[in-house]
Every structure is written in C-alpha cells, then in structure tokens.
Design goal:
About 35% of the residues lie in helices and about 20% in strands. The protein contains 6 helices and 8 strands; from the N terminus they run αβααβββαββββαα. Strands 1, 2, 3, 4, 5, 6, 7 and 8 form an 8-stranded mixed β-sheet that branches. A hairpin with a 2-residue loop joins strand 7 and strand 8. Helix 4 packs across helix 5. The chain starts with a helix and ends in a 33-residue tail after the last helix. About 30% of the residues are buried.
C-alpha cells in the first residue's frame, strides 16, 4: 500500500512538471510570434519624412532683393550677381530656361533613410527600421531644386521640346553621419553637369553638411533638408553666368530625340552622345 502511494506521488509530480513545460513552450511560441510581427512592422506604423516646405535659396533671395533695390533707386549695384543683372531693374525679366534632371545610384533610389556609424565602428551604412522618406531622395531633392531654380528662370523637364541648355545632377551622397552616440550631421553631395545641346559646358562637385538636433531619424532628416538647401544655394551660385541662351546647336536639334521622363538611366560617360541620343538620356525624373 505504501508503495502504491509513493508511485501515485511520483506520477502526480511528473504530470505537474509536464504541465509546466507545456505552459513554458506555449509562452515561448507566443513571444516568438510577437517578435516576428514586430520585425515586419506594418506600413501604417512607419514614420514618414520629407525635406519640408520649399524655401527660397539665399542666392535667389539676394538676386530678387538687389533687383528690387535697383528698381527703387534707379542706380544699379555693381556688386549684383549675374542673376540680379538678368532680372533687370524692373524684376520682370527672367534668366534663360533650363532643363533639369536629377539622378541617383540604386541605393538612393528608394524610400530608405540611411545613416552611417563612425569609422571606429566600421563606417557602416545602415537604415532606420521604422522611418522612411515620403519618396526617394532623388525625387525629393529634385523637386526642391526645381522650385529653387524656378524663382529666377523657367525650369523644364528633360523631354520638353523647347530648346534650352540642360543641367544634370547626380546625387552622390545623402545620409546622416554619426560622430558619436549622441551627435550626428546630414551630408549631401552632388555632381552637376551643364550641357548646351551635345556640348559639355562645365561640371562641378558640391558638398554640404548640417548638424542634427537629435540623434535619430527625425533629427537626421531635418539635417539633410538643411544640407540640401545649402548645396542648392551653392549650385545656383555656380550656375550664375554659366547658362547661355539656347545655342544654334540646341535650337536645330530635332525634337523627335527628346527623352521621355520615364527613360531608363544610361551608364554612358557624361557629355558623350550618339546622333540618336541626348546627354539627358540618363533622365529618370
């Protein structure tokens, strides 16, 4: 009888242990499921950012102000930029039209927000898990650039049949750089090439950076907006006096070779074009 009692106790203990293990496995499975859902965050939970409302670049603002000053005094300021001179004393005249195309490498042709760790941590490029751009950096930067340029001149799409010089901008860098765990800055670098028909007129590389107020995606996107404005101001200053009136070559170019806005990007070297292509064959936006 005593043996049967002890056997029953052992059986009850075994059942108790088995029940506890079953409960533990169920809890572990639930935790894994929750973790899996957290990893694939639904799109509605993502924070979306853009570069903010367009602002008038300092270069364009100075041109407009100096033009207005010349109109009120009747005396031109010899320190005015080429933009101000083109605007004229009345401010009604505008600069020559310009076709604008903005391209970017594949890694920037998405809505991912990139940040880079310090060199001491391997200089790694990573993306924010729960934050995204509203559109690709190339699209956001290009739209903002066209608004800035349109202050002083007509801005045309790549496929517009109107004869005009062309500006091609390659977005080379667009990321938040961390100097430490608490400090970072936004970096924007572009390569700009100016064409008059098939003729390469000039090329430059411009770079700007701006500090981030916070070490997160919100701070990084604001810093990148400030750096974008700084680069675009540099670009407008660089263009001053370089954009010619449409040349005979440009005016005589057949419109049938205009590149549609959806044309795929070309890897051909800048300034090299065949008789049936255009320097803007890389236009994607």
């Amino acid at each position: 009888m005593r043996g049967e009692t002890e056997l029953q106790k052992d059986t009850d203990m075994f059942e108790s242990i088995r029940g506890a293990l079953r409960a533990l496995l169920i809890a572990a499975g639930t935790a894994a499921l929750v973790a899996g859902c957290a990893t694939s965050t639904p799109s509605g939970a993502l924070a979306r950012y853009d570069l903010g409302p367009p602002t008038m670049p300092a270069a364009a603002s100075a041109s407009a102000a100096s033009a207005a000053s010349g109109a009120s005094t009747g005396t031109p300021d010899i320190a005015n930029t080429a933009n101000a001179a083109a605007l004229g004393a009345s401010g009604a005249a505008r600069l020559s039209p310009l076709k604008v195309v903005v391209n970017a490498p594949n890694w920037l042709d998405s809505d991912l927000i990139y940040y880079r760790l310090p060199a001491s941590d391997g200089d790694q490029a990573r993306v924010y898990a729960n934050s995204r751009w509203l559109a690709s950096p190339a699209r956001l930067f290009g739209d903002r650039l066209r608004v800035a340029l349109a202050v002083d001149r007509p801005v045309l799409a790549a496929g517009d049949p109107t004869a005009a010089p062309a500006l091609r901008v390659e977005l080379d860098e667009f990321a938040q750089y961390f100097d430490s765990a608490s400090t970072s800055h936004g970096v924007v670098q572009i390569r700009a090439t100016l064409f008059d028909g098939p003729k390469l007129l000039a090329q430059t590389t411009l770079r700007a950076q701006a500090p981030a107020a916070t070490a997160d995606a919100a701070g990084g996107t604001r810093a990148l907006a400030a750096a974008s404005d700084a680069v675009q101001t540099q670009l407008i200053q660089w263009l001053a006096g370089r954009v010619p009136a449409p040349s005979t070559t440009t005016r005589s170019a057949p419109t049938s070779h205009a590149v549609p806005a959806t044309a795929p990007r070309s890897d051909a070297a800048p300034g090299i074009s065949s008789p049936s292509s255009s320097p803007l064959a890389a236009a994607t936006r």
